[in-house]
Amino acid sequence: MGILADSKNYLKYFLSYLEVERNFSEHTVRAYSSDVTAFLLWLDNKHLEDIKYSDVKEYLLFIYKFNYSKTTLSRKISAIRTFYKYLYREHLTESNPVVGINSPKKTKKLPEVLSEKEIERILNQVDISTPAGFRNRTILELLYATGMRISELCSLTFQSLNLENDEITVFGKGQKERIVLVSKRAKGFLEDYIKTARSLVAKGYEVNCDETSPIFINNTGYKLQPQTVRMCLRKIMDNLELPKHVTPHKFRHSFATKMLDNGADLRIVQELLGHASITNTQIYTHVTSQKLQQTYQLSHPRAN
Q1: With a threshold of 0.70, does the pTM exceed it?
Q2: Domain 116-246 fold
Q3: Is the dihedral of CA 16, 18, 21, 23 positive or negative?
Q4: What is the pLDDT of residues 101-153, one digit of tens each?
Q5: 3-state secondary structure of 96
Q6: Is 154 exposed, middle or buried (CB count within 10 Å of its CB: 0-12, 13-18, 19+)?
Q7: Spans of all domains in the chain
Q8: Which CATH number fits domain 5-89: 3.40.50.2300, 1.10.150.130, 1.20.58.220, 1.50.10.20?
Q9: Bridge-partner residues for 223, per DSSP?
Q10: Which sequence positions are flagged as catalytic?
Q11: Which of 3, 236, 243, 289 could cysteine-pair with 40, CB 3.0–4.6 Å?
C-alpha cells in the first residue's frame, strides 16, 4: 500500500496552493494534508484521474466505520472536494468525481465565549516582566480588541499598521484585505512592545524593522507561529482555575459577542471579522439571545 509519485506531486502542489493562494491557516493546511493523504493511501495504486464517483462513495463508507464526529467527517469530505476541484481547475484530471458528494449536516454548536472578568483574569496572569511575556500580553490584548484570527495576527508586518488612525490592515482567508480597529489600550501595549520589548525578544539576533518585517517575532528573530501562541496560552491557562478550554480563537468569539451585546450592527461585525457571508456572523446573535433569556429568567419577578 502506497501513494503514486504523481499523486504525491499533486498533493504537494495542492498544499502550496492552499498556503499561498487561499491563505489557509497552518492548522487547516495540516488537517487537509492528513485527510487527502489518508484518501491517497486508501486508493493505493489507483491514478487520481481514474477515480469515479462510486470510488469516492466507497471511501466514505469506509471512513464512516470509524465513528468520526460530523465536524470531522465534513472536514475530510471538504478536503477531498477542494483537492479535486483544484486538480480539475488545473487540468490535472478530466473530471471531478466529488461533484454530488454532500457533507453530513452538522448540528450548530454555539461558540463558547469568555466574560470580561475571565478575559481580565487571563490577561493579568501573563508575566510581562520579560520581553516574551510582554509580547504575549500584547498579542492577547490585540486578539480581544480586534477579533483577528491568530494566523492573521502572526502575519502582521509594519506596513500593516496605521496606528495614527487606530487601524490595522489584515489579510484574511483568500488574501482578502480588510481593516480592523484597535482600542487605545491594545494600541498602547502594541506601541510599547515595538519600542521596548520587540528587539529584546530575540536577544543576540539581528532584528529587522523594515516595512515587510513581522511585528511579532520568536527568540531567533523570525515570524512568530500560531502554534507558539497556542502553547503560550496553554501555559498561562495551566495556572488559572478556569473551567473552560481557552484558545486564541475564543478571544475572537468573545470580541464578536461583546460587540453585539453592546449594540453593534451585525454588518459591521461581519466586516470586522472578515466573514464572507453574514450567516457566519449570525451565530453570535444566538449567543447574545441566549444570554438575554438567561438574564430575563434571573431578573424578572414573573419569569418562572
Answers
A1: no
A2: hpI Integrase; Chain A (1.10.443)
A3: negative
A4: 888 776 667 788 899 999 999 999 999 999 999 999 999 999 999 999 999 99
A5: coil
A6: buried
A7: 5-89, 116-246
A8: 1.10.150.130
A9: 217
A10: 149, 173, 249, 252, 275, 284
A11: 3
